[in-house]
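Bench notes, afternoon.
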Amino acid sequence: MTRSVIVNQGRVADRTDGALAGALITGEALGTLLHVDPVIVSTPSAPATDDWSVALPAASETLTGLRAALRDALDAGTTPVLATNTCAASLATLPEVAARYPDAVVLWIDAHGDFHTPATTDSGYLGGMVLAAACGLWDSGHGAGLNPHQVALVGARDIDPAEQRLLAEAGVTVLAPAESTPEAVAEFVAGRDMWIHVDWDVLTPGYIPAAYKVPEGLRPHEIAAIFAALPAASVRGVELAEFEASGSEVPEHLSVELILETFQHLGV
């Protein structure tokens, strides 16, 4: 299996300065692990607490570049492994996945639903709207095409009532942490191709820092067990997002080692 590593370094609605640093550190470590040179997309800019309507056009060049890098990796026949800053970077990747692999499932491993629309969001945060955009509930300008019936939220536990209604209406499978067993995830995948997205806030705080801390999450060994239960040959790509490296209470090198160790259970 030939792998490629893509690292996003352009701001996509970042409200802190740690996730871009975390993406670069993760991408460099993955490159060393997999013996490939990472492809770096875009350049960092300062964080801001801006509304999605401002953050989205500001990220247009980065999102276009990220999709182009993913397209190149897939055209080359590699399995892409992406280190991204925010979940909003998946506005670029998920439509490409839907176009390439229309029958694939998406495992969205995240404490949050990321299923708000412009009509339901209170925070205005673009990262909380990405999965809904990919499923066609609103138009990001970067495409859609993802079938919500082929999406599973794994480890989700911080979902607003409006999101919950949208998720239920769309037919997205939602697995709370207690339900996110290797058996349940493997049953959902059912031998199909898969795209895997991990936001590290899915973990109980204290392991891998993320911008948003949500208690009572999964633990690293539980993610590793899920990964180990999945057929590596069916993984079409992996995204690792939201490692908040700067100013963390957890030593950076320990978080990186944990990311690599967890990733390796996929066998990709």
